[in-house]
Amino acid sequence: DIDDVGHKYYLELVLEDVLDKDSTVNCTAEVLYHLGNKNIAPDVQFTLEGELKNTAEADNTFYNRIKSLEKELMAENIPDSHGNVSPEMEPIRLLAWVASGYVIWQNSTENTHFQLAQIKRVKQVKRSDEYLAFDYMILLHEMVSQEIIPWQVTVLWHPQHGVQVTQ
Amino acid sequence: DQVLHIVPETFQQVQHLQHLCSTLLLDLWKPLLPEDIWAGKDLHIRVPAPLVQEVKDSLDQHMISYKVLIPDVQELVDQSMPRERSSHRHVPEGYVYTQYHPMEEIYQWMTQIQKSNSELVTQHYLGNTTENRTMYYLQISQPSNKPKKIIWMDCGIHAREWISPAFCQWFVKDILQNYKSDPKISRFLQNLDLYVLPVLNIDGYIYSWEKERLWRKNRSPHMNGTCYGTDLNRNFNSSWGSIGVSYNCSSEIFCGPGPESEPETRAVAQFIKRKKSDILCYLTIHSYGQYILTPYGSTTKPPSNSEELMHIAEKAAAALMGKYGTSYEVGPTSLILYSNSGSSRDWAHMIGIPLSYTFELRDKGTHGFVLPPDQIQPTCEETM
């Protein structure tokens, strides 16, 4: 408890690579939830003890595949009702996951617990620069209220420049 | 098998390709007919595996350049097909337990299960849903002259938690397949009767198949049909309406106009009340989160037998983890999850059923409610 400021949590985490369960990195973090004003995202500081895997090859393969599409990519319901995701859509799903992490961070309080439930719709937006852009309609599940909250996000991505999320 | 992409450059090349296609009976994907092969136009041919080398050699000989468009057609086919049709052909009716089934098929399955296991299984009427569908439970009971205690398990109280009804079906299948050969199960059935309700919230389940995959509640109309659904797991008469609920129909945790206001709730409650002196254990299956939850959600005051409840739950979680390493958290809902009132598990304990648990199955949020079918088997096996 930090008087007049908020609640600070000290965390020790293990990060696990979604695509390679044996690959883990330790991490320490500090999270500060602000008192009162619920419109400010919690402050987060973290330190990685180790390095994240290099994904340049997979990034570039995905980047080139999307760049070479004749028509803008468009899809619905990822995963589908049964939980299936086609292999071509897997990177699209992972990108949505990253973006939803940002949205969740911006909207979290000590009384919320969000997860990405499903991508309702994704539409690629053609850009004149080298970035890839996708408009997503994602569905977030909030555990305490059990609500499903739709959220519109635009995600920019580039293999060397990373992810940017605009809501 | 491979698919090759070729752009013929000369008329001679076109002729050779047409010849190749017709003599080797190759599968033209683009164009459809050999006579439509033209110079300068894209050609896609599927070549069966045993002929791949011969075809490539022939193309090389005639200086026809090609690219491999699909290096392994079978791989692509496998990836795009619903899986697990193969490993369950030995199950009598051919019912595939590693896939999610719509309600129609679950009704048929119940009838079939009783027919093929009539010495052990009987199907019973429990009640009707809001939309007037029939609720059935299965009784698995070994004939004997001694009175037996009951274990009750219900699945699918929340529509979107598809892994839950999948588990109930798996559970029944597993018991029936193994009760003769597995000494633990056969001893179990000598002393206990199992009552399984595969889908409690039938209307909601159907709605999640046909209209909205992430629907949770039942389908009772409120406010003149402008809003639908009561959360059945907030509708039981256990500190009803006190905490962790909404009085607003538009909320996912709407507790309904009153305790046991919903026909589904009443159907379950009436039955359990009638049989309560014989019911040893009440289990209700949900997803997701990987928890074994004990009473209560409505208060942090521990139940009278909380040590026993925790001890058993911890043993269960350890056994579960022994299978695939999946970790489940164990404890009272109000302490490890959130506060809620009107849950079926709390109610069962409050009316005197000593062992009452909520299982929240896989996963922890990666897929959440939309758990892929390839996780049905491991989830069910570890939970058994």
- Sheet with the most strands, sense and barrel status of chain A: 5 strands, antiparallel
Q: State the largest interface.
A: A-B, 23 and 28 residues
Radius of gyration of chain A: 18 Å
CATH domain topology of the largest domain in chain A: Nuclear Transport Factor 2, Chain: A
- Helical content of chain A stands at 10-25%
Membrane topology (chain B): Lipid-anchor; GPI-anchor
Family (chain B): Belongs to the peptidase M14 family.
GO molecular function (chain B): metallocarboxypeptidase activity; zinc ion binding
Keywords (chain B): Carboxypeptidase, Cell membrane, Disulfide bond, Glycoprotein, GPI-anchor, Hydrolase, Lipoprotein, Membrane, Metal-binding, Metalloprotease, Protease, Signal, Zinc
Descriptive report:
The complex is a heterodimer of chains A (167) and B (384). Chain A has 167 residues and is an alpha+beta fold. Chain A has 2 domains: 6-49, Nuclear Transport Factor 2, Chain: A, CATH 3.10.450; 55-166, Nuclear Transport Factor 2, Chain: A (Roll). Helices cover 18% and strands 47% of the residues of chain A. Chain A has 2 helices and 8 strands, in the order βββαβαββββ. Chain A has helices at 56-67, 90-107, and strands spanning 6-17, 20-34, 43-49, 74-78, 114-125, 132-142, 148-158, 162-166. In chain A, strands 4-5-6-7-8 form a 5-stranded antiparallel beta sheet. A 3-stranded antiparallel beta sheet of chain A has the order 1-2-3, with no helix packed on it. In chain A, strand 5 and strand 6 (132-142) form a beta hairpin. Chain B has 384 residues and is of the alpha/beta class. Chain B has 2 domains: 2-75, Alpha-Beta Plaits, CATH 3.30.70; 103-212 and 232-383, Zn peptidases (Aminopeptidase), CATH 3.40.630. Chain B has 12 helices and 14 strands. In chain B, helix 5 (163-178) crosses helix 12 (376-383). The two termini of chain B are 41 Å apart. Classes of the chains: A alpha+beta (167), B alpha/beta (384).
